[in-house]
Design a protein that fits this description.
The protein is an all-alpha fold and 412 residues long. The protein has 3 domains: 113 residues, Serine Threonine Protein Phosphatase 5, Tetratricopeptide repeat (Alpha Horseshoe), CATH 1.25.40; 117 residues, Alpha Horseshoe (Serine Threonine Protein Phosphatase 5, Tetratricopeptide repeat), CATH 1.25.40.10; 129 residues, no CATH class. The chain contains 21 helices and no strands.
C-alpha cells in the first residue's frame, strides 16, 4: 500500500481548526486544570508540534476517555510518533492503537474530516500495522530514517534521507513527494512546488502530490490554482474520498459548494406509485434509455466490447450508450417548439441534455455513477481523455471563485 499521511496542514484540517478552536475554548470542564491542559495540548497540535502534544494528550484521554476531540488528536500524534520508533513491530502497534482510538471517537460522534481521513488510511494497513515504502531494503531504511527525522522536525536530515532514497530509486514517487512536503512544512514554497511537480511527473495517476500542492497553494492564498490542483487530484483518483473531502473543504473556505451532478432515471411508469404522472414525450426519453440498457444486460452488447470478460457487469460504454440514446430523444423534443417546454421544465431531462450537448456523457458516468463495474473502465478512459475529464470537473462540478452561488445541478 501507499502511505501518504503527513503532518503538513491541509485545507480540511484548516477548516476543522477554524471550527474546532472556538469549541475548545467554549467547552466547560469540571476541572479547571484539565481545561488548561486541554487548551495547551490543542495549541501544540495546531502548531504541528505533535510529539510535544503527545504526553499531554495521553493524560487528557486517561482522565476523560469520552473526550472525542482529544481522542482524534491523540490518534494523529501516535501516528506521527510511530515514525520515530525503530522497532517496526512496536510502531505498527501504535498505528493500530491510533485506529482503535478513532473508532472510539467515531462512536462518540466525532465525524470530523481529520478523523475520517486518518481512519481511512489506517484501515488500509496490514494486520501488523506496518508501513512499507519500498521492496528495496536500502530504500526502505533511508525512508524510515527520513520519516523519523521529519517527525522530530529535523527537516534537513529528513530531506537528506529522502534524497538518498531517490538516488537509490530515481522513480520513487514517495521520496519525491516527501521532499516536497518537507520544504512545504518549512514554508519554502518554490522548492515545495518544484518537488510536488516532480512527483506528479513520476506518477500523474496518484492524487497525493496534487492535493499536497493544493494545500500549500491555499496557505499562500492562491485559491484559484489550488482549485486546479484539486481537480487534477480528483481526475487522478476519482473514487478516493480524501480528495472529495478536500474539495469540499476548499469550497467551504471559499464560501461556495460543489455541484452534485446527478440525472435521476425514473423507474418505468408501471412501477411508479399511484398518482405518478409522466408525459408520453418524457416517457419516450427514458424508454430509449431502458431499451439500450436491456440490450446490454442481455449480454450481446457487452460481449462485443469486452471479449475477454465472461460475465456481464455494469460498464462505462453501457451507461454512455443508454444515456446518449435518451439524450437524442430529448434533443429532438427540445428542437421542436411544441415540445421544447416539456424539456425545459423537467430538471432531469434538461440536465441530461446539457451534459450531452457539452460532450460530457462519459465523464458524467465515471464521476457520478462510478460503481464497481464502471470504475473498472476508468483508467483506460483517463489515459485517453485526461483533459476532457478535467474540463468536466471545471465546468460541471467545482465552481470557479467567481461563482459564489450555491445552486447546483440536479442533485441526488
Amino acid at each position: 500500500m501507499r502511505w501518504f499521511y503527513r503532518r503538513a496542514p491541509n485545507l480540511a484540517a484548516h477548516l476543522m481548526l477554524c471550527l474546532l478552536v472556538p469549541c475548545l475554548l467554549a467547552q466547560v470542564a469540571s476541572d479547571a486544570a484539565y481545561q488548561a491542559e486541554r487548551q495547551k495540548a490543542s495549541c501544540l497540535f495546531d502548531q504541528g508540534r505533535r510529539l510535544e502534544a503527545l504526553p499531554l494528550l495521553e493524560e487528557l484521554v486517561k482522565a476523560n476517555p469520552k473526550d472525542d476531540q482529544m481522542l482524534v488528536a491523540l490518534a494523529a500524534c501516535l501516528v506521527e510518533h510511530a515514525a520515530t520508533v525503530s522497532d517496526q513491530s512496536m510502531a505498527g502497534k501504535e498505528r493500530l492503537r491510533a485506529r482503535d482510538l478513532l473508532d472510539q471517537a467515531w462512536k462518540l460522534g466525532n465525524h470530523s474530516t481529520l478523523a475520517m481521513n486518518l481512519s481511512d488510511l489506517l484501515r488500509k494497513l496490514p494486520e501488523s500495522g506496518a508501513i512499507k515504502f519500498s521492496d528495496n531494503p536500502q530504500v526502505e531504511k533511508v525512508m524510515e530514517a527520513g520519516e523519523s527525522a521529519f517527525s522530530r522536525r529535523d527537516f534537513d536530515e529528513a530531506i537528506k534521507n529522502y534524497s538518498k532514497a531517490l538516488e537509490l530509486d530515481p522513480k520513487n514517487y514517495t521520496a519525491a513527494l516527501f521532499i516536497g512536503n518537507t520544504y512545504d512544512k518549512q514554508n519554502q514554497f518554490a522548492k515545495g512546488a518544484e518537488w510536488y511537480e516532480r512527483a506528479i511527473q513520476l506518477d500523474p495517476n496518484i492524487e497525493t502530490a496534487y492535493r499536497y500542492y493544493a494545500d500549500m497553494l491555499a496557505r499562500e492564498g492562491d485559491m484559484a490554482k489550488a482549485r486546479i490542483m484539486l481537480i487534477r487530484a480528483a481526475v487522478a483518483e476519482p473514487y478516493n474520498q480524501l480528495v472529495w473531502r478536500e474539495l469540499r473543504a476548499w469550497a467551504a473556505l471559499n464560501h461556495t459548494q460543489l455541484k452534485e451532478v446527478f440525472v435521476a432515471v425514473p423507474a418505468p411508469i408501471e412501477n411508479q406509485p399511484s398518482g405518478y404522472k409522466e408525459s408520453p414525450e418524457i416517457g419516450a426519453v427514458w424508454q430509449a434509455y431502458r431499451e439500450v440498457a436491456a440490450q446490454w444486460k442481455a449480454g450481446d452488447e457487452f460481449k462485443k466490447y469486452f471479449l475477454q470478460e465472461k460475465q456481464y457487469r455494469h460498464s462505462l460504454p453501457e451507461e454512455t450508450d443508454a444515456l446518449t440514446a435518451a439524450a437524442k430523444v430529448a434533443k429532438r423534443l427540445a428542437d421542436d417548439p411544441k415540445t421544447a417546454p416539456l424539456i425545459t421544465n423537467d430538471p432531469n431531462v434538461s440536465l441530461l441534455l446539457k451534459v450531452y450537448e457539452a460532450g460530457m456523457i462519459e465523464p458524467y458516468v465515471l464521476f457520478s455513477l462510478g460503481d464497481q463495474g464502471i470504475a473498472k473502465d476508468y483508467a483506460a478512459c483517463r489515459a485517453k481523455n485526461r483533459e476532457k475529464l478535467e474540463e468536466y470537473m471545471e465546468k460541471f462540478v467545482v465552481p470557479s471563485l467567481g461563482d459564489q452561488s450555491p445552486a447546483a445541478a440536479q442533485t441526488k
